[in-house]
Specification:
Order of helices and strands: HHHHHEEHEHEHHEH
Strand content: 5-15%
Distance between the termini: 45 Å
Structural class: alpha/beta
Largest sheet: 5 strands, mixed
CATH architecture of the largest domain: 3-Layer(aba) Sandwich
Strand order of the largest sheet: 1-2-3-4-5
Radius of gyration: 20 Å
Helix content: 40-55%
CATH topology of the largest domain: Phosphatidylinositol Transfer Protein Sec14p
CATH superfamily of the largest domain: CRAL-TRIO lipid binding domain
Length: 257
């Protein structure tokens, strides 16, 4: 069910009113987003089954969390670059619904080897980067060569809580690729942490069934696809670079006519 423009505006008015009346100290960028971004407000409403007051509560909690964790200020310059470059998580290609794949190479993560607070910042960085690309993502857990030593329940719960509490209606699918049977018990626990709507989005896939959700051209060769991509961390282009790139395209198009 899609919220109406009236419901979106009602949520916006309630949020702005509470910010002004209660003097809520949110980041100016988030307040500006609430003022102008209908799609963001729509996600809060859908996530909360169109209940405006519940959506409002979630919006306020989200903005409070974003200010506390300085989410708007996260960049390559203040993150652990070694973690970003390790290739344990990255965005690459899209699913059949054209939602970015946020890939977790589970075999590259071992619980306790990295500073958890720094790791969480890197996850938020990728969530923010993905959100600038699309209204939803598909989380892809690549579990090839994964063992119990790679299974970090605290880390997994953190990911789940981000989607439950601060990134509303952000999940398209959760794809679990080639999960070893020894991890079945752990995933039963993980499922219990998820709301019913999210559980329905979990899909267990293998080389034979992945094509139901990801085109072969968008799937890595290791997954049975045709993409030969090898991860190398690339910083996100700045807004100025986006404009520059668009201008180049326009010049090229004009010269080709």
């Amino acid at each position: 069910m899609e919220p109406s423009q009236e419901e979106i505006q009602k949520l916006r008015n309630r949020f702005i009113e509470e910010v002004q009346v209660q003097g809520l100290d949110f980041h100016p960028r988030d307040v500006a987003r609430a003022n102008s971004d209908d799609a963001w407000l729509k996600r809060f409403l859908v996530h909360n089954d169109m209940e405006v007051e519940d959506a409002l509560t979630m919006m306020k909690e989200t903005c409070k969390w974003r200010k506390t964790h300085q989410v708007n200020d996260l960049s390559v310059n203040n993150l652990n670059f070694e973690y970003l470059a390790a290739g344990s998580m990255f965005i690459h290609n899209k699913d059949k619904d054209m939602k970015p794949l946020f890939i977790f190479k589970c075999c590259k993560h071992v619980k306790g080897q990295k500073d958890f607070e720094e790791l969480k910042k890197c996850v938020i960085y990728w969530f923010e980067r993905a959100e600038r690309m699309s209204d939803q993502i598909t989380i892809f857990f690549d579990m090839m060569n994964t063992t119990l030593t790679n299974m970090d329940m605290e880390y997994t719960k953190y990911l789940i809580n981000l989607c439950k509490m601060y990134y509303p209606n952000f999940l398209n699918y959760i794809l679990i690729f080639e999960m070893p049977w020894v991890l079945n018990a752990a995933f039963k626990i993980i499922k219990s942490w998820l709301p019913a709507k999210a559980v329905q989005k979990i899909k267990f896939v293998n080389r034979g069934t992945l094509k139901e959700y990801v085109e072969p051209s968008q799937a890595l060769k290791a997954w049975g696809g045709t993409d030969e991509y090898q991860f190398v961390f690339t910083p996100e282009p700045s807004p100025a670079e986006w404009v520059k790139d668009e201008n180049k395209k326009k010049v090229f198009s004009a010269s080709a006519m």
